[in-house]
Amino acid sequence: MITKAIEDNKAEEIDIPALARETCLECHEENLGPDLFPEMTSISARFFYRFLPIPDEAGPDPEYVYIQQPDKYGLTRDNWGQYYVFVASWNNTWEAASARPEILSDKVPEKLRWVLRRGQNLRLVWRSKGHSYDPYAPLYHLLPRRTLERFGLQ
Asked: Is residue 64 located within the same domain as residue 109?
């Protein structure tokens, strides 16, 4: 059990398994059916940043660009971490679209300086020689278990 404080300064215990059963769509059999499809959404970056400018005009459509893992460039320790953090920050600020170069220009690692070209709305996607999981992760999780097993993808 987890305890949380409520408005009148009393503590209330939360039964996590019960909460999951109540709020999880798949837990209610009456909600399942052939016309129910998984939904993929994205969360706003406003939960991570105090200020994020969002252009009034839509600008160019996003372009998905494959990038290498930092190990490919021989980056280690701090440089490796800065590379990873930048990519996460860049992709998390997707709402800022083509304004991202102005926002994140001081954090760009040397190997990714090309993302600063103005007027582009880029999304960075990890690419590995050994596997192609990252680009297809959202689709992979929509496949039925039987399909994953049949093609040895589990």
From this structure: yes
